Amino acid sequence: MKKIIYRFSIFTLLLIFVLVAYLSTVGIKTDVFNNQISKEVKKINNQLELDLNEINIILDPFKLKLVLKTIGANLKNKNKLIKLESIKSNIDIKKFINKRFSLSQLDITTRTIEIKNLIAFIRSIEDNPQIYILEKFVKKGYLIAEIGLKFDQKGNIENDFTIKGFVKDGELRSYKKIDLSKINFIFNIQNNKFEFKDIKLSYESNDLLFPELNLLKEKNEFLISGKSKNKNIILDDKKIRLLLNKEFSNLKIKSAKFDLENTFSFKINNKYKIDSLKINSLLNLKKSKLASSLNLKEFFPKINDTLELSNHQIQIQYEKDLLNINGNGNILLQNEKDNIKYNFSKSKKNLKFDTLLEIKKNPFYLNFLNYEKNQRNKLEIIILGDKDLLLNEINFKNISIKEKNNKFGVKNLLLSKKNKIESINTINLSYFDNDLIKNELSIQKKGKNYLLASNSFNATKIINDLLKADKSSDGKKIFSKNFKLDIKIKEAFLDKDHLINDLDGYLTFKDSEVIDANLVGDFSRNQRINFTIRSTSNEKITTLYSDVAKPFINRYKFIKGFEEGSLDFHSIKQSNVSNSKLIIDNFKVQEVPALAKLLTLASLQGIADLLTGEGIRFTDFEMKFSNKNESMQIEELYAIGPAISLLMEGYIESDDLVSLRGTMVPATTINRTISSIPLIGEILVGKKVGEGVFGVSFKIKGPPQKLKTTVNPVKTLTPRFITRTLEKIKKN
Questions:
Q1: What pLDDT does residue 613 have?
Q2: pLDDT of residue 67
Q3: Rounded to the nearest 5°, which phi and psi values hold at 392?
Q4: Rounded to an integer, what distance in angstroms lies between the CA atom of residue 58 and that of residue 11?
Q5: Among candidates 146, 155, 174, which has minimal Cα distance to 85?
Q6: Please, what are the averages of pLDDT over each run of 10 residues along the chain (732 residues)?
Q7: What are the residues whose beta carbons fall under 8 Å from the beta carbon of 357, sequence distance 6 or more?
Q8: How far is residue 68's CA from residue 23's CA, in Å, rounded to a whole number?
Q9: N or C, which end of the chain is more exposed by having fewer CB within 10 Å?
Q10: Residue 262: closest CA among 199, 185, 330, 178
Q11: Nearest CA to 397 among 359, 429, 423, 430?
């Protein structure tokens, strides 16, 4: 009996073991639980219908659970359908025995689903603007997902759910018509936490990689963070314009090739606006071309229309409206590459900048200071300052230019919102100019005014500008405030051969124009120079007297070999028109091409030879002329000398056209003419027999470089010529 009971027990245990082993490995198939599982799915959304095949039941003896699994189910809503690969769930055996059916977990694996179909399915359940916009953006793509749902004791879905899977061959088009293709990534979603890894996509043939991207939902906000690592990105001007926002629209980038690494984070609030943006980037700019919109040819004479940047290492940081850019690399402004370093820091109220440009073999000019860089030397330009973005004012705290022993420095140059100079604290210059003259000059702010002090300064350029006709263009109004500039220069050069000692005085500026001036200095041998400007409400009077005329006449390149003589200039300007008178006494010229040609055409070869040899002396030269904008009207130019006299009039239109006409008379004819005048001729010259009153008329016309000269060799002298000659002779 004991043996029978023992054998029965062994058999029963063995049978139970085999049964448990069979149920734990092979299981059984049934459709008993189909309705119950479908009801549980409807708890997710009552519009969902689950179409199940037979369910395979496998026993989990250790956890006292039944594992339910079915293959090839379909999830339906109205006429939309999602095909599922499998559904898996667990049932507590105790609850099952007590006839309290309840799912504790539901795992769903999908087949390959077209993303557009999935979005359409979701819209059929719950339609909202966000899903509608997403549907418009998504053009293509597929996904496979595994969904894990957990249920509480009452059968309700808990928030602790998971969705993981991957997306393949996605395509998106944004509102800016930016096409993204070949989108592939792995995703893992746990309740309010979204993780995306190994994101790969293509933009305009550029492959982009985002190793990770994380989203965390907190209340009504999304916290987003991630990394990107991209190489050999190539963009043309059209793509760049699409990507840049309005803040950088003034950057005319034509092309760019670069590597870029980013770490970033930001929030999206309940109004779908980006907040708390943080970006840390490392940009390896291999090559980029920018269209140059700045007129810098005065400083960089060989500047290109397109600037090129290469091999730039740039660090970019952005946080709480604070943008910081720090970089360095090569820049091709002219013929050879230079090096540039820069740091920009921008907030809502302020933009700070610090740049260093190293110019190696390229030229650099400061024409207004008569300075040119030696192309064999390295030159450094440092610009440090900030811009008030609210007032739109720029403060250049330091501008420094250095080339060996040549130094130019400006401190605290403040520009108004219209780019006019508000104030300057100091200017310090120490350099050799193109005439190899040592210049040492400083300008210091004294209250509202300034003091210019110098041991040695080449004033050639300043004198030229002061004597030029004024052009009332708004572009020349560089000062926003009125001020007085006191001047004390021990040695001032009018040119490399003419030195003024102790040039003292002042210039008063109003609306960027000198309205009052008085400059006095000494040449050697007690020769003086005096320059004045006086202004009233409706006119401006300018005078210049110099015992030495040569440094001023030498400004005109067509006159060579000018010697001796004094100069007296007087001008009155009213309503943008200046009427001037220039007198030069007792001088000699050796070469004037236009005059030499006139003498040759008039068959006065002897006088022409004298002009190019020893030179022709004139006792008097007087010119009355007027200027308006770029036009000069010569009312009368009269010159008299022992060998020849001239009377001329006409006009000059800037660098475009010259039109002159006049009379030229040898000295013997003048004497005969005057002697033939009754009574007056006898008193001034004495009794001589005249053979006639004859001279030469001429016309000069054409562009300055291609003047055409015509001569009428025989002409009776005009009464005007005789009258002017008599006036001069009587005066002398």
A1: 56
A2: 74
A3: 60, 35
A4: 23
A5: 146
A6: 67 64 65 73 74 74 72 81 82 64 76 87 76 82 87 69 90 75 90 89 86 86 89 83 60 86 87 83 93 82 90 93 93 93 93 95 91 92 94 94 95 91 94 91 93 90 60 64 93 85 92 89 86 90 87 65 80 88 79 58 49 66 84 84 79 80 67 49 41 64 78 58 55 54
A7: 331, 338, 339, 340, 380, 381
A8: 11
A9: N
A10: 199
A11: 423
Tokens (6 digits) for 54: 């037979």
Tally: H helices and E strands in the chain = 13, 41
Q: How high is the pLDDT of residue 486?
A: 94
In the chain, the amino acid numbered 494 is: L
HSE, CB side, 13 Å, CA atoms: give it for residue 485.
Answer: 21
Q: Could you tell me the end-to-end alpha-carbon distance of the chain, in angstroms, rounded to an integer?
A: 169
Q: Where are the domains of the chain?
A: 2-115, 292-432, 590-731
The pLDDT of residue 311 is: 95
User: How far is CA 166 from each of CA 86, 115, 123, 180, 567, rounded to the nearest angstrom?
Assistant: 17, 11, 21, 17, 91
Q: Residue 326 and residue 252: Cα distance in Å, rounded?
A: 20
Among residues 609, 638, 618, 663, which one has the least CA distance to residue 727?
Answer: 638
Question: Residue length, the chain?
Answer: 732
Say what the pLDDT of residue 317 is.
Answer: 94
Contacts of 168 (CB under 8 A, 6+ apart): 141, 142, 143, 184
At 475 the three-state DSSP class reads: helix
d(CA 637, CA 95): 123
> What is the model's pLDDT at position 270?
75
| Of residues 303, 368, 378, 318, the one with CA closest to residue 348 | 318
- Which pair of tokens denotes residue 356? 């260093």
What type of residue sits at position 525? R
Q: Which candidate, 160, 154, 142, places its Cα nearest to that of 102?
A: 154
Do 386 and 395 contact (CB within 8 A), yes or no?
yes
At 487 the pLDDT is 94
Backbone angles phi, psi at 213, to 5 degrees: -150, 125
The CATH class, in words, for 2-115 is alpha beta
Look at residue 599 in the predicted model and tell me its pLDDT. Answer: 57
Q: What are phi and psi of 20, to 5 degrees?
A: -65, -40
CB burial of 251-280 (b: ≥16 within 10 Å; e: otherwise) equals eebebbebebebebebebeeeeeeeeeeee
**DSSP codes, 396-451:** EEEEEEEETTEEEEEEEEEE-TTS-EEEEEEEEEEEE-TT--EEEEEEEEETTEEE
CA angle 393, 397, 398 (to 5 degrees): 135
Does residue 439 contact residue 458 with C-beta atoms inside 8 Å? yes
Beta bridge mates, 647: 638, 663
Both structure tokens of 82? 């999602």
Q: What pLDDT is recorded for position 686? A: 41
What secondary structure letter does DSSP report for 470?
A: P
User: 354, 384 in Cβ contact below 8 A?
Assistant: yes
Which helix (H) or strand (E) covers residue 187, if one does? strand 179-190
DSSP string of 290-345, one letter each residue: EE--S--TTTSTT--SEEEEEEEEEEEEEETTEEEEEEEEEEESSSS-EEEEEEEE
Nearest to 258 by CA among 243, 247, 278, 274: 243
The two tokens of residue 73 are 């189910």
- The pLDDT value recorded for residue 235 is 85
According to DSSP, the residues that pair with 699 across neighbouring strands are 661, 710
Strand partners, 500: 492
Q: Global pTM?
A: 0.74
- The DSSP 8-state label assigned to residue 157 in this structure reads B
**Torsion angle of C-alpha atoms 434, 437, 438, 439, degrees rounded to 10:** -70
